[in-house]
Amino acid sequence: MAEGKALLPSSPGSERLFSLLPLEHRLIVCSLLVISFVLNIVCILPSTPFIHMSVDAPLDAFLVPGDYGLSATLGLLKKRQLWGTYILILLLSICFPPVKILLTAFLLGKQMKCATRSTAFTCLAQLGRWSLVDVYFAMLLMMIAWHQGLHITAGTGGRVLANIDTQPGYGLYLFVVAIMCSMGAVAMLQEFNTVAAQPSPPQFERSGKPLLRFAGVRGIIAIVMAVTTLTLQLCSVLLPVFSIKGFYHGDFKIPLEQIEHQVGSSIFEVAPLFAIIMTIFLLITPALTMLFSIGVLVIPLRPGRWCYDGILRLSEWSMLDVYTIAMVVYLCQESSLITLRIKPASYCMFYYVPVMIPTVLVCVSAVKFAIKQQHTQPLQGVASKS
Fold it and tell me: Fewest CB atoms less than 10 Å from the CB: which of 17, 34, 166, 356?
């Protein structure tokens, strides 16, 4: 990290991170935070649509057509007494994003130890993912409503189709950009803070042996957990996740089209541009996190901080667990919405959520331990010879 020395001076005590940043990086970080804050304000405005919903009679008695932004969605959830979803969106998608920006600015200007600041940035990065829970809830609704309708008999044998249709509004894209800007700013500050804490990290030579040789039992456990988590993640995205039943409210039932959905394919049919963004967060980064964890342990590489930092940074952009929580909240309140029949991928998601973060932590611990062991073993050999 010779370039780290040039970027940031040594900081033996507590210093303000803002004073350590080069001017161009100050401008980038501040710009990202300001853009994120402004877009968050725009997204809260009642006139900013997240979803446009078209519903034909008689289905409009259950789903009110029109444009839905954050405020309109909260109003509808409150009217239907869907308090779980209401509280989740209110806290994570409306209250937390501006609070996160203010906390980031506080950490940027507050004089504190690098280790303390690093812990705070890591917590902010992990919590920041959950601000997108309303986006995944909207994605779930669009999947459910895709090509849905009800055949109604009209007159003497005639049949008409009452349709449900949803389209993403520009507010959905603005909100994703807002959250990504704040996440990008935090990711940059994490890196600078790490360099400030250790401007001259130890240099390691490339070894002919993989880190798994030095990780011991920890490495084996990490590999098993990473493979298991990767399998659950791929099954969650590629297998059928649910099918539609209909409006089932007590004895009153309206069956809908029995369409079966997969996360990986259905969202492309619903909203292709939006699907590209969601595919990165739901398929690519979760899989890369586990593949990277396995790779740094089994492939002979030049070890360093990048090995375990890479696992943490990738995990901060992996959001399948956020989508799963949005789906769980929906299922808990589906009696007031469209009822679903869950499929194998749903069960994989339910198992994925409790193992994802522990797997990341175990892999990071195993990699750190292996690097330490690889570095100390040659020194012990030299000491024993002398």
Answer: 34
Question: Tens digits of per-residue pLDDT, 227-260?
Answer: 999 999 999 998 998 888 776 666 666 777 777 8
Please report which helix (H) or strand (E) contains residue 117, including its range.
helix 114-128
Of 6-15, 119-128, 308-317, which one has max mean pLDDT?
308-317
Q: Would you identify the CATH topology of the domain 14-154+163-199?
A: Butyryl-CoA Dehydrogenase, subunit A; domain 3 (1.20.140)
User: Are 256 and 247 within 8 A, CB to CB?
Assistant: yes
**CB distance 69 to 195 below 8 Å:** no
Letter string b/e over residues 58-95, b meaning 16 or more CB atoms within 10 A of that residue's CB: ebeebbebebbbbebbbebbeeeebeebbebbbebbbe
* Domain residue ranges of the chain, discontinuous segments joined by +: 14-154+163-199, 210-375
CATH topology classification for 210-375: Butyryl-CoA Dehydrogenase, subunit A; domain 3 (1.20.140)
Contacts of 189 (CB under 8 A, 6+ apart): 17, 29, 104, 107, 108, 121
Same-fold call for 14-154+163-199 versus 210-375: yes
pLDDT in tens, 256-292: 777 788 887 777 776 777 778 888 888 899 999 999 9
Bigger pLDDT: 275 or 308? 308
